[in-house]
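Quick one, T. Sequence first:
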Amino acid sequence: MGDILTALAAEDPARPAITCDGRTTTRAELEARANRLARSYAELGVGHGDFVTVALPNGIEFYEACYAIWKLGAVPQPASARLPGPELGRLLALADPALVVGVAAGDADGRASVPAGFEPDPALSDAPLESRISPSWKAPTSGGSTGESKLIVSGSTGAPDLVPIAARYRLHPGQTQLVPGPLYHNAPLIVSVTGSALGQHLVVLPRFDAQAALDAIARHRVSFVNLVPTMMARMLRVLDTLPNVYDLSSLEIIWHMGAPCPAWLKKRWIDLVGADRLYEMYGATEAVALTTISGQDWLAHPGSVGRPILGEMKVVDLDGNPAAPGQNGEIVMRRSPGSLPAYHYIGAEARVYDDGWESLGDIGRFDEDGYLYLADRDVDMVLVGGANVYPAEVEAVIMEHPAVLSCAVVGLPDDDLGQRLHAVVQADGELSEAALRAFAADRLVRYKVPRSFRFVSEPLRDDAGKVRRSAVRRVEITLAGAPMARPA
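Structure tokens:
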């Protein structure tokens, strides 16, 4: 990866490499900065194969740090810059990094660290370093549904084969890529780093904002973007409020992934950009197996996340037998025969079954044509009076209401039903519980309509579209005895 940047800088040093928050760095500037940072990191003790935790927000500095780490043959270990102290401490205990980037010395649990905005010694050389290859090119974190941190260490080295990755995502050198998602999440990281290595101009948002994203697409003539459904819904609300203001004609490829996409939202985006430009991927950071589907195929198989393009997938019943087409069960997957391990965990154990099949805990079904449909994660399923309810389905309906910005549906203890559905809702403007319940009742069978609602003012999903329902549920159980009124 470090050699790729050196070659790009030599090929066209003045070409824009990254733009963020009004500042643009060229290929030559990115290369020089990464070389000087690499030498500074080495003086702080970073060596070949070491983990380096990168707790920086979205920005040029994030990519400078990662390229510096690759140039040393070390492993970038991205983390949120907003992690609270105890959670950061647990992560550092897992990773045991040689250096923590973006954290003050007193917050690094005694480890070597440099803060955000760190300036290396200007006397250090910015010339290219001796070529080194990291044993793994990334080790992102994942809390999953439980919220317990684990590291997912990639099986690809710091000299990854970018050709199949680029082909999979339809990336090519001439594109301008908008990066709206948090870089500590795998999808924005892998797509933008691959684009950078191809020589793309990256336009990075410091933090997702719907109007800023739409403005960046129009201003920079963005041709490639990777979104999550939460972003898609927020951008649509801006477009509905301000029609004919934002030019999206430059967009060639729009991916969405990271969370289930409601059918109504998918259809709106197909109407907006065209079915031939919209693509969806289902998989995980572990990259054992992946499915994709184009907008055209989705119109023929509405609700599907596509067919496998990497590895193998099947759906099994409670006894581990293959489920019949149309029958929900646990989705299991394994890598293609003869391929190298895609990852290994630090801080968790993979759910591996016979013959290498493993599970990420998702529930779904295949149709007769081999297209996969997601239900939800097995740990999130709610049993209401003996009936299985998947929160993602209920959330998709609630999100369709024009006043709803985000929501999370969980099961709360109930003496009669065992569990009852409860919805936590972030709304824009006045929205009554009665109105929202009536809206849901028009679209869902009665037992899937939440029995209770609580309105909140803060977002319930992060910038990557993720929600930790287990954490939401703990809070709601604690509050269950208190009035569930809209906050002032």
